[in-house]
Amino acid sequence: MKLLYSPFSPFARKVRIAAIETGLQDRIEAVPTSTEDPASGLSGRNPLNKIPVLETEFGPLYDSPVICEYLDSLHDGPKLFPAAGPARWKALRWLALADGLQDAALLIRYELTLRPTEKQHEPWIERQKAKIRTALDRMEADAAELDGPLTIGAIGAACALGYLDLRFADWGWRGTHPRLAAWHAGFAERPSYVATIAQA
After folding, report:
1. Class level of CATH domain 85-191
2. Residues 6+ apart with CB under 8 A from 192
């Protein structure tokens, strides 16, 4: 299998962590890929021209939740996607919340780095920041749900928080979310998390 990714993408990081946690990393060739490079062939694999993409024997898979669930189907160990019941829905809810936080953070990043300063729309940026704040507040309130067996929801949450550390370290989310910060500190010691840290 071949994974098209960027080391700075929190969505791709989620896939890379899932691959390590399921013991599949040695079966995957990770290929750094730019969404801005037409020669990368990315759009031929994903018509949305987004990463990550996993090339499989039956064709490409995208996006990150689909890839992670596929990887979870390939191993016999504890599953990252609980099979049924409340545990499954809580894991998927965490995944959706984390992905939404990442979406908002990426939109802010693009606005600040790709648009000229005079064309940046501050009210729109503030709306994205509000989404991030409310997501963090919900994560803080429900942080106890992240304890226990590792799930895709916990991986997603860790990647979302890691992206804030990477791109918006000055926001200081830990100071107002102590339970979430304590959980993240523990997760950050996992070898899969350490191995996938990107340098700004």
Report:
1. mainly alpha
2. 16, 17, 20, 21
Asked if residues 20 and 26 have their Cβ atoms less than 8 Å apart, the reply is: no
Q: What is the CATH number of domain 2-72?
A: 3.40.30.10
Report the predicted TM-score, pTM, of the whole model to 2 decimal places: 0.95
Is the backbone of residue 59 left (phi > 0), alpha (psi -120 to 50) or beta? left
Other CB atoms within 10 Å distance of the CB of residue 48: 11
Categorize the per-residue pLDDT at 200 as very low, low, confident or very high, splitting at 50, 70 and 90: low
Q: Which two tokens stand for residue 192?
A: 């899969």
Domain ranges of the chain: 2-72, 85-191
- Other C-beta atoms lying within 10 Å of the C-beta of residue 31: 13
Across the strands, what pairs with 2? 29, 55
| Residue 25 CA, distance from chain mean position | 17
130: Cα within 13 Å, side-chain hemisphere: 6
Report the amino acid identity of residue 51: I
| Single-letter code of the amino acid located at 140 | E
72, 61 contact by CB (below 8 A):
no
